[in-house]
Design goal:
The structure holds 2 protein chains of 2 kinds.
Chain A (H helix, E strand, L loop, with lengths): L8 E4 L5 E6 L3 H5 L3 E6 L6 E4 L13 E6 L2 E6 L8 E9 L3 E4 L3 E5 L1
Parallel strand pairs in A: 1-9
Antiparallel strand pairs in A: 2-6, 3-4, 3-7, 5-6, 7-8, 7-9
Chain B lengths: L2 E5 L2 E3 L5 E8 L8 E6 L5 E7 L6 E3 L7 E6 L4 E6 L8 E9 L4 E5 L3 E5 L2
The chains are: A mainly beta, B mainly beta.
Chain lengths: 110, 119
Amino acid sequence: QSALTQPASVSGSPGQSITISCTGTSNSFVNYNLVSWFQQHPDKAPRLIIYEVTQRPSGVSFRFSGSKSGNTASLTISGLQAEDEADYYCCSYADGSSYVFGAGTRVTVL
Amino acid sequence: EVQLVESGGGLVQPGGSLRLSCVASGFTISNHNMNWVRQAPGKGLEWISSITASGSATYYAASVKGRFTIARDNAKNSLFLHLNSLRVEDTALYYCARENVLMVTCDSWGQGTLVTVSS
């Protein structure tokens, strides 16, 4: 499957907003809204925070929001908090009933 | 509460085999496609296999196709992954994940079981 490209790291100060990009080239990524985002704290399992580009599962803070334009999806974290320091992965449903993940972005709260 | 508990990981020599298990509670796996995702130490997530709710179809990443086999026992609410011809590069934490067909993603994950391939 085609890879999803994310920046290795993003940082921000408490209260700021940051945006993580995820770029893909496959037909399923560009033409369908099947992008999800996961948060992973050290030594913890991934946690779903965004699905279908913009949807938040129950219990996920409104400070997390998603968007997509063309071949780039984005995750924005508003009002950055210390607890948001984690790794974030984008994911896309792909051809052949499979999934492809980005390499992950380490978010640091300064 | 939805729970997924993996087991079966361990240290194995290159070329060896293992069987991983994932027991679900709080929901019925027969209503869900199920997936295995792995994470090598210090690396990102890699989807490796999925199986439909009935078990009638299975899918694999190119990196494991022909060596790994996914299976399920809906009566026991369990998912399995048979790992054969293991390589050093298969060393990873293996997660079991439930697929939510409405969300088109994996919405619940276990804590993982560690597979270490080394001589």
